[in-house]
Amino acid sequence: MQTSVGINVPSRILDWVLNIGSKDRLTDAQLSNIREWRSGASLPTVKDIRTISDRLQVPFGYFFLSQPIDDTPPVCAHRTIGSRDIDRKPSRDLVDTVYAMSALQDWARQDRIDHDEEPFDFVGSVAVDVDSAGLTEALRQVLRLDEYWYRDGANSNPDTAFVYLRDHAEQAGIIVMMSGIVGENVRRRLDPEEFRAFALIDEYAPLVFINRADEPASARLFSLVHELAHILLGEDELYNDKSVSVAVTPVERLCNAAATALLMPDEDFSMAWGAAGGDADERIRAVRKLFPVSWVTVALRALHHRYISEEQYDAVCKRAKEWTATQKSRNVSSGGNYYATKSSRFDHRLLDRIVASVAEGRTSYTEAYRMTGTNRRTFQELLKRVEP
């Protein structure tokens, strides 16, 4: 009869994985077992370690290191939450998502280099001491937008505007990814309270990731433009500034101002406000229909112009917060079409390059499946769904 072999995991490693992992997912029995392993009263088996690894959401190999390591992605050093710097450790959901996007970015960078393509000159092309008008104009040039792009078609709708600006960003060479879960694991939902988006700077493969779990659609749109501004400034960033009225650093205030100006130019806003009739609430609703922004953004601009009072602005923020909470409760069990969801997550131009690389024999199907989160069947079906 075969006996499972116990493995001595140093207490410093156990303490470390508990510190960086999702400790709240452990049961009381599992915590008790870990205390016994730490004291040496018993030893875990490989199966035990794998179970704890899965529960903590930390790599299995971490348990076999001789010393703890710092696996915090560099971008997490550039975090803001609620308009303030934070020191608490990032969740494993965030860490794993950043590393997955970094791996995609590394592949895209090497692919461009292998094809002797030049780096993008717009990455880091704008100095951080520029004013918001200069940054807004630079965004328009890179994205090839005119000042009143939001008047075309249904672009005043945030969902439509997101698709429109995402497509323009991808055409410019910026990779735009979006998901509300970690990889393909629907049980690991990304928390918008932790982050809304992040930007990873690379002159060959600049990348923006949008947290799909963030609501409403106008929030995702604002995050996209905010992160595109960071690409032009050449600064990595992880974003979750829930209030555009206050920002923790001059760079954040600059990006917020540029994003707001791109989505709702001040002169156009003032004209729309003056043309709208009724009380403050009616005017906010009327102006909101003309721009792909939230009620709060319209109210904030009105507050800056002293069209409304602080009390009226606070009331709008309260109603918006209540609406967002309602949407979250409605969307908890939402499913949707697998391929439509998968297609919305992935940058289509990057997918085209992966397919071309597979056809050229430079990338294996196995690697393509790993990067796209697919398998032999779903990969081919996904390609059919995203073909123009």
TrEMBL record:
Pfam families in UniProt: Peptidase_M78 (PF06114)
InterPro entries named in the record: IrrE_HExxH, Rad_response_metalloprotease
Domain annotation IrrE N-terminal-like: ranges: 170-301
Gene3D superfamilies tied to this protein: 1.10.10.2910
PANTHER family for the chain: ANTITOXIN HIGA1, BLL0069 PROTEIN
Protein name in UniProt: Putative Zn peptidase
